[in-house]
Amino acid sequence: MSRRVFSVFSLIVLAWIASGCSADDTRQRLFIIGQDLGSVRDYYASNCCPRADGNTAYLNFYTLASQAGGFGGLGIDLDGEPLDTEFDWGAGPANAWKSATEFPGGFVIGLSLPENNHPDGLAQIIAGEHDSNILQLATFVSMIEGPVYLRVGYEFDGGWNAGYENQEKYIAAYRRIVDGLRSAGTKNIEYVWQSAASPLNDLDGYRDGEISKWYPGDTYVDWVALSYFMHPDEGPRVKTKHIPRKPRQLIAEVLDFARHHGKPVMIAEAAPQGYDLARGFRANIGGIWDGLQAADRRQVGPREIWEAWFAPLFELMEENSDVIYALAYINCNWDAQDMWDAPYESGYWGDSRLQVSPVIAERFSEAIERWRALP
Known about the structure:
The structure is a single chain. The chain is α/β, with parallel strands linked by helices. It has a single domain (27-272, 301-330), classed as Glycosidases (TIM Barrel), CATH 3.20.20. Helices cover 31% and strands 17% of the residues. The chain is built from nine helices and 14 strands. Strand 10 (275-276) and strand 11 (281-282) form a beta hairpin. Helix 8 (302-319) packs parallel to helix 9. The longest helix has 18 residues, at 302-319. The chain is globular, with a radius of gyration of 21 Å.
């Protein structure tokens, strides 16, 4: 190669790196369905919408190696033998082995690490006190044939996740888990770093606009992710100490961060919070945002719901198709699950099942296929 050709080639490579482009120009766009075993089964049984490229399940990291803790919902015992038991902690049946093997495509795991019920848990992870749990997770991943996307300590900037406010501990615990899985020889796993991107964090000053403080580093992150529950331009309807940033601003912060680091983005949790697609109404989410939870119910038709919540989501995905490559939709009747039903201590969520609304199901299917076809 001549010096001139090499120089031109170098400039092209440097420009490509600066643009934050991914090395994988043929990356497939992924539609993922969740979030519990029962809801995923119901989705497939309804045959309402496109075949998903994977499904989602959640695990309690601290009990993965504990029979008393139901092996964290992993669905295998300490010998790696699959369990028929389906655990339910109030958010639908959980058995990650069944979730990973009953349905086609990849498997997304939400790995819960907060200290709400596990005081000093992050420090214990860092000290190696839970390395047996990491090895148990490695055993599980090695048994799965398809790709596994692991959301380690998801929603790191969510004020509801105790312990994550200590960014240094969060990063160290995240890295300990990733290093442990790599040392165990796991190959079919990609690591997902997920922001809540929620304006609720701005209400009490939890967020300071610098998500980089939680970043474990490029070598520990394959995907940058975010949650999407509110209209991107929604603001509080009750008096607050100060006006929080809109979801659109928080989402843009995550997308820009991902572009800068050359990472694809996964919308790892998405559902129209406050809407009941079956009964056709919207209600308040909660007192700190719009009023008493589940109160002020307003009847809305399926076309109104689509325009109010779904259309902005797909507009966001299409406008940022250069970086958003995965959508995980939560397709469940929240109001029928003990963790989320009355008195709605975690806010009002509603019913986000696509199959209960033919109009929304049809439009959703069309939107997914249109997004999947984007270059």
